[in-house]
Specification:
Length: 377
């Protein structure tokens, strides 16, 4: 079922584009898409529910302006559709009883984010009756979810003071570290990362925590970030790290064993894959593959790629646990399973002669299909 806001007229070019994206593009197949608008607060948002086969759709709320796009609303829609689909796969492989959803609030959060806007957004989420559970994403934070939760009980990623799990970056970084251990075990026969050289591109919320795990494990770490203050924070905590001039210099670093993209999506592209020196890619960023086919390019070069939505699922494991009454030890134990899940994906990929990304998709699709069959019986 698709809900289209009355603000989009039936004969408008915008709606033709929306419907084409929903029903005819490779991003289609979603159960429900809601366009939300609240004129008094300036709220414009998209909520995309890809699947509820495994349970209520769970995924964060992105707050982004899409500056530079000629049609920001359409860019936001496509982002929501793509991210919601990714959450279905992520939640399936994380072993959660949740489907996939995602929301995008359109606008610059530094300019238009207000308490009233977040409350209005919470009312829209609540109107879905629990089909979609929201949380933090780019541009939204724990304190924002505390506000949204005042209007919507289907909100997670709240502060500990409000009964929530707090910053989900903690288990996101831990899960990526477990994924790296699985990569090392599959590639080099041991999960030990001591002595391995790991390049981390992006040392923000997740990246700087990942560096901590790597340093503790005895890895040699090379970092880069577009924000000088982020680099300096890591250097202050871990003086032994090396700093690369930029991402291009990082991926060309001689002797690099593992490359960890932890910033924006599209890090693995036609320009970057041919010059990667690392034999393994495992990072926290979402949507790392710039376009379909990049996963085969990596495999053809002998580079082991850990599917991003598998290894960065520690955050969603953390916020999902909050819905049960948050227990950090229980959530961390669940995130530890990322190691075994990644290993199984690598094994199935080798047996089938396909890239790990294809094997991961296949496993997730099988789990969702099995859940649909159970629901229909």
């Amino acid at each position: 079922m698709t809900d289209v806001s009355p603000a989009v007229s039936a004969d408008s070019t915008a709606e033709v584009s929306v419907l084409d994206t929903l029903f005819h593009s490779e991003l289609g197949g979603h159960e429900q898409v809601v366009l939300c608008q609240d004129r008094p607060t300036g709220l414009k948002a998209v909520i995309a529910i890809h699947s509820t086969a495994l349970g209520p759709a769970l995924g964060g709320t992105r707050f982004h302006a899409y500056a530079g796009h000629p049609r920001p609303e359409e860019a936001a829609l496509r982002d929501a559709l793509n991210l919601a689909r990714g959450m279905s796969y992520k939640n399936a492989l994380a072993g959660l009883e949740h489907g996939g959803g995602k929301a995008v609030i359109i606008g610059d959060p530094l300019r238009i984010k207000t308490e009233d806007l977040l409350l209005a957004y919470g009312r829209f989420v609540a109107s879905l009756g629990g089909r979609y559970v929201t949380a933090c994403d780019v541009g939204t934070y724990v304190q924002d979810m505390d506000v949204v939760a005042r209007e919507c009980r289907w909100t997670t990623g709240r502060s500990p003071e409000q009964g929530g799990a707090g910053d989900s970056s903690v288990l996101t970084a831990f899960g990526v570290f477990q994924g790296m251990r699985a990569c090392a075990e599959h590639r080099w026969g041991s999960p030990d990362l001591a002595g391995r050289t790991v390049g981390v591109a992006g040392v923000g919320k997740v990246g700087h925590l990942l560096v901590g795990h790597l340093v503790e494990a005895g890895a040699e770490v090379v970092i880069t970030d577009v924000r000088a203050e982020s680099v300096e924070r890591v250097r202050a905590a871990h003086p032994g790290v090396t700093v690369a001039a930029d991402t291009d210099a990082l991926i060309r670093t001689p002797g690099l064993d593992i490359y960890a993209p932890c910033a924006l999506g599209g890090a693995l592209s036609d320009a970057t894959v041919p010059v990667l020196t690392a034999g393994v890619v495992c990072g926290a960023a979402n949507n790392q593959l710039d376009h379909p086919g990049i996963e085969k390019d990596l495999a053809d070069r002998g580079i082991l790629y850990a599917p991003d939505y598998v290894v960065n699922s520690g955050g969603v494991i953390q916020v999902a646990d909050e819905l049960r009454g948050f227990d950090f030890a229980r959530a961390k134990e669940k995130a530890t399973e990322i190691h075994g899940t990644a290993l199984e994906i690598f094994r199935q990929a080798d047996r089938a002669g396909v890239p790990p990304a294809a094997a991961a998709d296949r496993i997730a699709e099988q789990r969702m299909a099995a859940a649909r069959r159970r629901g229909a019986s």
